[in-house]
Amino acid sequence: MMPSSTIFRAYDIRGIVGTALTDETAYEIGRATGSEAHEQGQQTLVVGRDGRLSGLALQSALIEGLRATGRDVIDIGQVATPVLYFATHQLGARSGIMVTGSHNPPEYNGFKIVLDRKSLSGDAIGRLHTRIQNRQFTSGSDPSQKGALRKQDIIPEYIQRVTEDMPKSPGDTFTIVVDCGNGSAGHIAPELFRTLGHRVLEMYCDIDGNFPNHHPDPSQPENLQDLIKAVLAHGADFGLAFDGDGDRLGVVDNKGNIIWPDRQLMLFSRDILSRHSDATIVFDAKCSRYLVEDIRKNGGRPLMWKTGHSFIKSKMRETGALLAGEMSGHIFFNDRWYGFDDALYAGARLIEILLAARSSADKTSPDEIFATLPGGVSTPELRIPMAEGQSATLMERLMVEIQSSDLFSNGQTTTIDGLRVDYPDSWGLVRASNTTPSLVLRFEADDQSALAHIKEKFRHVLLKLAPGLEIPF
Fold this sequence. Notes:
The chain is α/β, with parallel strands linked by helices. 36% of the residues lie in helices and 22% in strands. Strands 1, 2, 3, 4, 5, 6 and 7 form a seven-stranded mixed beta sheet that branches. Strand 11 and strand 12 form a beta hairpin. It is globular and about 70 Å long.
């Protein structure tokens, strides 16, 4: 049975378990990836999984498919995705596969694939589907001999590496609430931040693939409400939230304010630019225009690019950027780190910056530090669920519509990822999600009046193309 083409997405493979994604599909994906690895001279792949209920069975089938092509496998078990990426640098294997549904609902799972330290995206993922369709599989040098398999616990090495990278604190510590959303970061985040010397209050750090407390996606404000309450109730310095596989970071300050990832990027970029003037900082099209201004003000080079961890990492390699980030919460450090998206390491870097600010400014609190970051009024990511394939079709029609419409004629349009329109006092974005069948929108403005105006412009054109569309604003 051929896998559905719908699971081969822009920067990973993802689908609903038991229908689009089965153990048999995982085996075939293993054979296709192993064959591709063979052609690229990659003998060994690291394989890990997040905490989803389907993860162990899918991982086992995937490993068997890889070994059928003669590839050797290092099984690192249940880990956060950044730990899998780290293992491809630490264990002498430049390739790996993470079995993860990321921030999606419990019924989803999938695969993030790295070959020769490059995350597969676009056509490279499409080639795996083509291999399966055409049965273009490689066997090992001895078809009767499967590739080797060994297991290894890499988490202690990861914690040691992060700890060694952080400057030693002069005894100053924070109280941090950590919400792992019952995802795979629960195995490591509390231990990491305690090892760094801080008091950690755990929330939902037991791994449970049913995600019984809230959806494991810190990009949505409703998923941060428990964290906000806990920070305020305990008088904590701040809170950190992680998605289902630990590569997205959410931040709440000591006053309960959500510090969205584009504002986190301002703080991170200021720190990096203080040591590396003229550095390139990459960010996705959903990020604030104030981020662009702040990077330039501090001597950096802002570069907007497509949403997607694979696309961002590719652009970082191309440009030599030292930092990148997405509004979804993926933060990428190529300064003192490896250039992959790592919410755990980003949390440690945030602690470093806040500690330095507090020690140099007479006990400055996190909310006072974050208050130095420019910003207007904005929405979080807004989603409009649609049937599979409909969001891409609607975006195609929208791109045609704006050619003849004067609705956005006075704005600056950017089409590197969906449609973004910037005005002097506001901007709006609509794009088709690459991870779920939905449209994603975001808006920002100088004040509430301008925000309402830009939202109405987008509402008007969307309803013109799709009457009856349920728009959440």
